[in-house]
Specification:
This protein is mainly β. Helix content is about 0%, strand content about 55%.
Length: about 210
């Protein structure tokens, strides 16, 4: 069977040309984006959801989505040349993947290869104090993967203790959420998931972690 690549065009109002009162639109070969969703061991993740978003108009909008096949593969064959795209993938209890695909090219095939999602089955526990050893109570902490593909929030108890569930294997950066005045996160040390004895020191005056 002969396969024919689809055609399409990005049409902006200011670029439309008319000929004898009729619109004239030039169609081009669409771009194909494909890949395979796997876990951290390289095994396919059937049932993972993949979405493609376009940023062409009024913010991001979903233009296509698909569940991967039993071998973890996915393919989108309708990327219009000249459009800006990004792609996301996720599965239950796994980290989320996000990538900016850039501007689609005419007739191009973009293979993302293996896209690895990490299982979120680890935890981190410990205690946060000030320099004198007194507990820092009710501080809102965040634990984020290095590439920001997963982030969780938790609040310390009255004794400064915290327990983070649902994080992947590897190192995560611990941060403190500053509610006012700018709602920013002040990041501190990296901590390996699975540890239950983490001791963090937070300076109340400077609102920063001590090394």
């Amino acid at each position: 069977m002969h396969y024919q690549r689809g055609l399409g065009a990005l049409v902006r109002e200011e670029e439309l040309r008319t000929k004898n009162g009729e619109l004239e639109i030039s169609l081009e070969a669409l771009e194909i984006v494909r890949g395979t969703i796997v876990d951290e061991n390289g095994h396919p993740l059937p049932g993972a959801l993949v979405q493609v978003h376009s940023n062409e108009r009024h913010g991001s909008s979903t233009v296509a989505n698909a569940l991967v096949t039993s071998d973890g593969k996915f393919e989108f064959a309708s990327m219009i040349p000249g459009c800006q795209y990004e792609i996301e993938a996720w599965a239950n209890n796994y980290t989320r993947f996000h990538k900016d695909l850039g501007v689609a090219g005419r007739g191009r095939a973009q293979d993302l290869g293996d896209v690895a999602l990490r299982k979120m089955d680890r935890s981190i526990a410990g205690r946060i104090t000030d320099a004198s050893g007194a507990p820092v109570a009710d501080l809102v902490l965040t634990a984020a993967c290095e590439n920001q593909d997963h982030r969780v929030f938790m609040r310390c108890d009255a004794e400064g203790r915290f327990n983070v569930f649902g994080v992947p294997a590897g190192f995560l950066r611990i941060g403190a959420l500053q509610i006012a005045p700018d709602d920013r996160v002040v990041y501190g040390p990296q901590v390996e998931s699975g540890r239950k004895d983490v001791h963090l020191v937070f300076d109340r005056a400077s609102k920063k972690f001590r090394k």
